[in-house]
Amino acid sequence: MLGRRRKQVVNALQVALILIAILIMLVPIAWIFMAAFKNHIDVFQLKLFFTPTFENFGTVFEPPFFVGHKLMNSTIVAFVTVVLAIPIATMAAYSFSRFRLTGETAMLVVILATQFVPAVVIILPFFVMFRDIGLLDTRIGLILVNLAIVMPFAIWMIKGFIDGIPLDTEEAAMVDGSSRLQVIRNIVLPMAAPGLLTAGIFCFIIAWNEFLFALILTNKDAVTLPIGLALFKAEEGDLWNLLSAAGIIIMLPMFVLALIIRKYFVQGMTMGAVR
Amino acid sequence: MRDSTLKYLLVLPAIVVVFATAIWPLFESLRLSFTVGRLSRPGSLEQYLGFENYLWAFLYEPAFWNSVWVTTIYTILTVGLTTVLALGLALLLAPGGRFRSGVQTLLILPFAMSPALIGVSFRFMFNPEFGLFDAVFGVLIPPLADVSWLVDPVLAFAVCVMADVWGWIPFLTLVLIGGLASVPQDTIEAAQVDGASGWRVFRDVTLPQLAPVLAVVIILKSIFSLKTFDQIFMLTNGGPGTATQTLSHYIYFNGMKYGQIGYAASVAWLMVIPMIFLTYAYAKFVFRRE
């Protein structure tokens, strides 16, 4: 009897701790959501109840903020980065997964290692080069450097997915006279499709949230959403309600995407070190 | 086409991209680190100085040592706190059940948030007039009621650490839950039958089994902590003064704001060195699984 009682207390304690953790985790997000619907007077008070307004979401799209323009830049940059990265990564991942290559381990380690090179190191030479050839403040320039951060993730993640596809179907098709490229197109790609989509979404989130490259390379035409956050500093201080509205525009689509691929999140981030 | 040719053709584009976007800039940075390297003086990117930039950082730049110090403390605190708290949360959530897996789904959210936005939201939460965390801390710890968090060097640093830990706990927790799932349940039950206390089971059975995953988590988090830039830039911009200036921020400031790209590149390369060791350790764990 006593043991059961004790078990109940422990369980209640655990649930209480979990609830506190959720609270701490959700409050900053909830706070932004609330502030985005407050008018500029309510935002300066710790109010839980207020008359919600959609005005902020309109204001951020107007001059001088032009969030629409940044939204378009972010979308194009992240999308094109993914569209370029995934096919290239898939080809490499297939080869790494199915064949023995000379220097394979070395190549994989180098690819893994590039992920850990600090972004500041990479961006200094790119800044100089882009200044010389006129790619500063362009979406093309941003897409090129974004490939640097996305490629290693994409290759390792897709390799993980292809490793999980059984070899027999491929071998059977080869015996029936299909060429290797036909096998890749007709068998591997359809089977790997969910994995490719997952990797694509994962890379999209990374490119969308990328900050340092965009901060250094853009100043007007190609500014992306995260950099756009700096716009909401006025002389009288931060415009918190507008900042929050812009914040929602940045994070809400990523929340949706992250929930779609939640099962593979851990595997992707650790590049297969943990599954 | 024969497989022996095809297999190299397939990896070629990826290798080209990785070389062009990561390896080339890495070594071009190394070259720049030996030059005068002023953005405002065109020829200076080819004017070589030897190790002068490195010596300058070591001997004449207290701000460099400050950022090394800030980054070190920041890394130790964020890695330690995030790992311990995430392990605690993972142990709470691991038993499963609908409620607990619902919470696991929620854990994805902070991770999809851009670090820059996390910085912004923590500046908001610690605003002295209408910040919620500022108010909560004021109630819980009365001496902190009237402080301006982001104006005080130590407290501003504490806020940066909190923002980082807040942003990373969910991800580390998810990884550790995955790790806990692979600890064989029967070993734990056997220990419990033998009468071992919960703590003993954790220390003698769970923890040793979890060690490889913990190592991966700690290495990965160390790498990301050392590189920290986005949140700091949005939260304190290195301030007050240079109290929260991490190495990445110091490099950014010298390279981009002062235009001393050669000097910035030399400090950046000093930062690459610990990364090489960490990456080596990480790669060992990844390939051990193959």
Q: Work out the radius of gyration of chain A.
A: 24 Å
Tell me the distance between the termini of chain B. 29 Å
Helix run count of chain A: 12
- The count of domains of chain B is 1
CATH-derived topology of chain B: MetI-like fold
CATH domain class name of the largest domain in chain A: Mainly Alpha
Structural class call of chain A reads: mainly alpha
How far is the first residue's CA from the last residue's CA of chain A? 40 Å
Give the largest interface pair and sizes.
A-B, 95 and 96 residues
Output the CATH class name of chain B: Mainly Alpha
Folded structure, characterized:
- The complex is a heterodimer of chains A (about 280) and B (about 290).
- Chain A starts with a helix and ends in a 6-residue tail after the last helix.
- Chain A is an all-alpha fold and about 280 residues long.
- Chain A has 2 domains: about 55 residues, no CATH class; about 210 residues, MetI-like (MetI-like fold, Orthogonal Bundle).
- In chain A, a hairpin with a 2-residue loop joins strand 1 and strand 2.
- Chain A is globular and about 70 Å long.
- The longest helix of chain A has about 35 residues.
- Chain A has 12 helices and 2 strands.
- Chain B is mainly alpha-helical.
- Chain B has one domain: Orthogonal Bundle (MetI-like fold).
- Chain B starts with a helix and ends with a helix.
- Classes of the chains: A mainly alpha (about 280), B mainly alpha (about 290).
- The interface between A and B is large, with 95 and 96 residues.
Labels describing this entry:
heterodimer, A: 275 residues, MetI-like fold, 12 helices, globular, B: 290 residues, mainly alpha, 13 helices
